[in-house]
From TrEMBL:
The keyword Cell membrane does not apply. SUPFAM superfamilies: EPT/RTPC-like. One of its GO terms (cellular component) is cytoplasm. This is UDP-N-acetylglucosamine 1-carboxyvinyltransferase. Its EC number is 2.5.1.7. Signal peptide: none annotated. Residues 9-257 form the Enolpyruvate transferase domain. It comes from marine sediment metagenome.
Length: 257
């Protein structure tokens, strides 16, 4: 059977129990955020998916110790976090790899990462990330398919996003947590992943306000600490099972939704 094709023979009533995995996109941003502290972060309910494995390998290449404990728990220890360059061969496989830029700038004051998807002509989604980093005081250059950023000290500023980019909002939030002063992000993304990332950061000791609105305020702190945290359930997976059960007249118990 073609691995890119699913053949579904319908007409059956769905019955049984299904457990919902953690939300992949939330897990990816929170894995990146774990780099903001020298302490160990324990992440539970992490979906063991290809993208998660790629992100784990990206941050391993940065000098971070990442270990699976069981099927859905990750231990992330970034005490020896020392490499500012994310490898091209991994970044090209997953666009969310760019989320390590904010933590790299905050911790190491330098970041180098290939453009997700390679070079592009015209406006790129990554431009919103660059605009935010430059507002925080970083010098950013894009050359030969790479983004390289350097900063002596991140300083808070008022940032307006021309588009409410999820990734840019998350990246700026993470960098701003360890910046000096106050940062505001206007026209910020309001996605559940942003709210969840903000909750994670606040439990680490950050001061993030306005989650779930289009105006997010971050007051920088000197350091963050490690925590034990469970990733939220995947709302899309839960919704898919709900719809499938409803349209087949099924009887399905959805756990961890």
């Amino acid at each position: 059977m073609d691995p890119e094709k699913f053949i579904i023979s319908g007409g059956n009533r769905l019955q049984g129990t299904v457990r919902i995995d953690g939300a992949k996109n939330s897990a990816l941003s929170i894995m990146a955020a774990a780099l903001l502290t020298k302490d160990v972060c324990i992440l539970r309910n992490v979906p063991h998916l290809t993208d998660v494995d790629i992100m784990a390998e990206v941050i391993r290449k940065l000098g971070v110790n990442v270990e699976w404990k069981g099927d859905d728990t990750l231990y992330i220890d970034s005490d020896n976090f020392n490499n500012y360059e994310a490898p091209y061969e991994l970044v090209k496989m997953m666009r969310a790899s760019i989320l390590v830029m904010g933590p790299l700038l905050a911790r190491l004051k330098r970041a180098k990462i290939s453009l997700p998807g390679g070079c592009a002509i015209g406006a790129r989604p990554v431009d919103y990330h660059i605009k935010g980093f430059e507002a925080l005081g970083a010098q950013v250059e894009v050359e030969k398919g790479y983004i390289e950023a350097k900063v002596n000290k991140l300083k808070g500023d008022d940032i307006y996003l021309d588009f409410p980019s999820l990734g840019a909002t998350e990246n700026i939030m993470m960098a701003a947590c360890l910046a000096e002063g106050i940062t505001t992000i206007e026209n910020a993304a309001k996605d559940p992943e942003v709210v969840e990332l903000g909750r994670f950061l606040n439990k680490m000791g950050a001061k993030v306000e306005g989650l779930g609105t289009d105006l997010i305020k971050i007051k920088g702190v000197k350091e963050l600490h490690g925590i034990d945290y469970a990733i939220i359930p995947d709302r899309i997976e839960a919704g898919t099972y709900m719809i499938a059960a409803a349209i087949t007249g099924g009887d399905v118990l959805i756990e961890n939704a």
